[in-house]
Write a structure and sequence with these properties.
This protein is an alpha/beta fold. The chain has eleven helices and eleven strands. A seven-stranded mixed β-sheet has the order 1-2-3-4-6-8-11, sandwiched between helices. A four-stranded mixed β-sheet has the order 5-7-9-10. Helix 1 packs parallel to helix 3, helix 4 packs across helix 6 and helix 9 runs antiparallel to helix 10. The structure holds coenzyme A.
Length: about 270
């Protein structure tokens, strides 16, 4: 098991999704290591519940997504369910519909999210990782989208994220071949942010999470909102949302605290107001 330095506070999907909070950092664990954390529909629904809880918890400023065990982040959708629930176009649409709300929740999540990736990150696991804001991976991690090996059409939102991270050329190579790439290559093509020796992965990911958590929440939110709007088509961009968060930031107590702390040569204490 991944050595998580906190206890589980809540679980969903029969214990296959775990949720906890540690020092302002929410943690969601995909916990089905015997199946390399393959995602069943129940797990998608559990992920949605955990994301909602941590979103609504005012003590949580950042959320880490991590896989249990030493072998995988998430090895994709649970293929053993496909014969029953994803065997043709109609069933597949219903299957997508059941996970759509959860995917949207992650895509539009108001707090920063970090995927902490050890071992296999495949198919639907790549989708989860790509929907997170930041990807920190161990040196033993492997990435791939084997949709062409299974005969699956990968989703629009998955490919949109892939193209925006690695560009169309690498997206095509990955999708046409279904090949797996290692952490070094994933880093080089921009799929992940950083590669860490396996033994230091959790500590390094928590360091980044704590750094984010100690920063001014409104300023972090302003960056998150503005970057998300930049990635939309121009016609769909909500420039008012960007102005609104910019105004909240510049009028905030935290901005006052930030500039005072700098002048007084001390660490600022931010409250998110
Ligand atoms: N769905 C369902 N079961 C899965 C799974 C998945 N996505 N990934 C792994 N499993 C199961 C295996 O069937 C196996 O079950 P078993 O113990 O009952 O035989 C168990 O998890 C361990 O997998 P195994 O293949 O023995 O482990 P490995 O370490 O040699 O390989 C993977 C791990 C992830 C590379 C390999 O299991 C794999 O290729 N999985 C499918 C990945 C995939 O195609 N994902 C996209 C789905 S859309």
């Amino acid at each position: 098991m991944l050595d998580l330095p906190h206890k589980t506070e809540k679980s969903h999907a029969d214990g296959k999704i775990l949720q906890s909070v540690d020092d302002g950092v929410g943690v969601i664990t995909f916990n089905n290591p015997d199946k390399r954390n393959a995602m069943s529909l129940d797990m998608w629904e559990g992920l949605g519940l955990a994301l909602t809880d941590l979103r609504d918890d005012p003590t949580v400023r950042v959320v880490i997504l991590v896989g249990a065990g030493s072998k995988a982040f998430v090895s994709g959708a649970d293929i053993s369910q496909f014969e029953q629930v994803r065997h043709n176009a109609e069933a597949s649409e219903e299957y997508s519909r059941r996970s759509a709300a959860q995917r949207a929740l992650l895509a539009d999540y108001p707090k920063p999210t970090i995927a902490c990736i050890r071992g296999f990150c495949l198919g639907g696991g790549m989708l989860v990782a790509m929907l997170a804001d930041i990807r920190i991976a161990s040196d033993n991690s492997q990435f791939g989208i084997p949709a062409a090996r299974l005969g699956i059409a990968y989703s629009y939102d998955g490919l949109r994220q892939l193209v925006s991270l690695v560009g169309p050329s690498w997206a095509r190579l990955l999708m046409y071949t279904g090949m797996r790439i290692d952490a070094t290559e994933a880093l080089r093509i921009g799929l992940i942010n950083r590669v860490i020796p396996d033994a230091e992965l959790w500590g390094s990911t928590m360091d980044i999470a704590r750094t984010i958590s100690a920063n001014a929440p409104l300023a972090v939110q302003a960056a998150k909102i503005t970057i998300a709007e930049i990635l939309k088509d121009r016609a769909d961009r909500d420039m008012d949302a960007i102005s609104a968060i910019g105004r909240s930031c510049m009028d905030s107590e935290d901005f006052r605290e930030g500039r005072r702390a700098f002048m007084e040569k001390r660490k600022p204490t931010f409250t998110g107001r």
